[in-house]
Amino acid sequence: MTPSPAPAQPTGADAQLPAHERVYRQLRNRILWGLLMPGAPLTLRGLGTELGVSMTPVREAVRRLAAEGALSVSASGRISAPELSDERLEELASIRALLEPELGARALPRAHLALIDRLDIMNHRVDEAIVKTDVPGYIRTNLEFHRTLYLRAQAPAMLALTESIWLQAGPTMRALYARRQRSEATANHRKILAALRAGDEPGLRLAIRADVTQGLRMLIG
Amino acid sequence: MTPSPAPAQPTGADAQLPAHERVYRQLRNRILWGLLMPGAPLTLRGLGTELGVSMTPVREAVRRLAAEGALSVSASGRISAPELSDERLEELASIRALLEPELGARALPRAHLALIDRLDIMNHRVDEAIVKTDVPGYIRTNLEFHRTLYLRAQAPAMLALTESIWLQAGPTMRALYARRQRSEATANHRKILAALRAGDEPGLRLAIRADVTQGLRMLIG
DNA sequence: AAACGGCGTTTGTGATCACAGACTGTGGCC
DNA sequence: GGCCACAGTCTGTGATCACAAACGCCGTTT
Predict the structure, then answer these.
(1) Which of A66, A114, B21, B197 has the fewest CB atoms within 10 Å around its CB?
(2) Which run of H or of E encompasses A42?
(3) How far is A85 from chain B (nearest CA, A)?
(4) Strand order across the beta sheet in which B41-42 lies
(5) Is the Cβ–Cβ distance between A115 and A152 less than 8 Å?
(6) Considering the entire predicted model, what is its pTM?
(7) Are the CB atoms for B87 and A88 separated by under 8 Å?
(8) CA-CA distance, A211 to B137, in Å (whole number)?
(9) Residue B73 CA to C9 C1' — how many Å?
(10) Beta strand spans in chain B (E)
(11) Contact residues, chain B, for A67 at CB < 8 Å
(12) CA dihedral B8, B45, A52, A68 (to 10 degrees)
């Protein structure tokens, strides 16, 4: 039996988590992995029945995600996945170009070989998702790659900001990636890994910056 | 009759805003202006009766602020103003040092004289708050100065991230500023204004960076 | 005197309900 | 044919309530 994408009953380790937390994670993953189309409308009651809870915890989860920019609520309170203008996308890209090289540079002195090997393996997963043209899979594994590296930076606030940016761009990224498929992503990742192995901070900053900006910039132009 | 600091009945323009929005703004300002001590406990019912609403809108506002890092909730759900470690404070300072010079640089080409004059006036207000040793007033006017400049950058996402950092540091800043009072803040601000008038981007970046890092760094060491 | 145990109180959580506003689609009118 | 008005439905909002867990206080014990 295949696992249901949205279990009405809490299963496994999630059983003891508060309902609003489960709803939050569920929605967050959908957004982050590009499973929601930009502008797609959501309703409190709909999400509640779908996830097997009442409106109350759903409201809290939605409010939380809206605060992170992951969802947008209209003046009248309607909830939807955000639609980003090109200027906004460029801004998000330049924020990534600002924060992520810094996170990489901070992770560099703490990145031992075991970590680099794990990143290498993750990069293979990114590759697989690309050849299978599995867009959500590509987005997910790509972000996992970056996140695993940045975790070593020991900078939780900076990482939280960065993930907030990913979240904001999630739905739009998906919609854009559906049109053009990237393959130079793994090339950039290989450059990142090489700089990591060499302990080359300027090279690492450059490689991360290239990876981040190429991904978004070429989707606009 | 003096205006109550926390009106139980919505007054003026706020009357038509949703209750959760009013609660959010009320709490946000208290945090941002350093009116809450780090670790100070808050309760949903307490805030509700104080602000004249039920628990429901308070819960949404608190959840939203917690998502921005402005409040911390324990594993058991207790709400309090966050207590930041020194490492965390340093991290927040370096994030400010990363984002704010960029915001300033983007605002620079759009900063006409009227704006600079307004900033000058605001800087006088900062000065007044300092000589009166009005700590919340100093924090508030100082942030107003920065915010007014950054608004010209036309980078809403970057500004939102920056304000989130201010929010996170709010209570701790207050607790630290209560001990030592800064006076070179206005000197840095004057350097910012001079660079703005001269159209000197590198100088502006440097001045903002100095203003931001001096404020926090010297409170730690 | 310090640590432990127990109980009353306080606190967050989640469900339910009444209500007002917004949206949808349908019909009639110009 | 296109535009507008109206009604029905859907949606978010906020209050209230029952409940379980956590906290704090106080008396007892070692």
Answers:
(1) A114
(2) strand A41-42
(3) 12
(4) B41-42, B79-80, B72-73
(5) yes
(6) 0.90
(7) no
(8) 44
(9) 21
(10) 41-42, 72-73, 79-80
(11) 63-65, 67-68
(12) 70
What residues of chain A, 58 to 117, have a C-beta less than 8 Å from chain B? 59-60, 63-69, 77, 88, 91-92, 94-95, 98-99, 102
Residue A138 CA to residue A180 CA, distance in Å, equals 13
Give B10's contacts (C-beta < 8 A, 6+ positions apart). Answer: B17, B19, B22, B52
Residue in B closest to A55 by C-alpha: B56
Shortest Cα distance, chain B CAs vs residue A88, angstroms: 8
- Partners of residue A79 on adjacent β-strands: A42, A73
Using alpha carbons, list the distances in angstroms from residue B98 to A35, A96, B42, B103, B208.
32, 12, 32, 9, 10
Residue with tokens 């429901």: B56
- Is B47 a residue whose pLDDT tops 80? yes
Q: Token pair of B57, please?
A: 């809108």
Please answer whether residues B123 and B190 qualify as being in contact, where contact means their C-beta atoms are separated by less than 8 angstroms.
Answer: yes
pLDDT bucket at A105, cuts 50 / 70 / 90: very high
Q: Cα separation of B90 and B213, whole Å?
A: 9
Whether A58 and A46 have beta carbons less than 8 Å apart is answered as no
Pairing of strands B41-42, B79-80: antiparallel
Distance CA(B46)–CA(B71), nearest Å, equals 16
Helices and strands (DSSP H and E) totals, chain B: 9, 3
| Tens-place pLDDT, residues A88-104 | 999 999 999 999 999 99
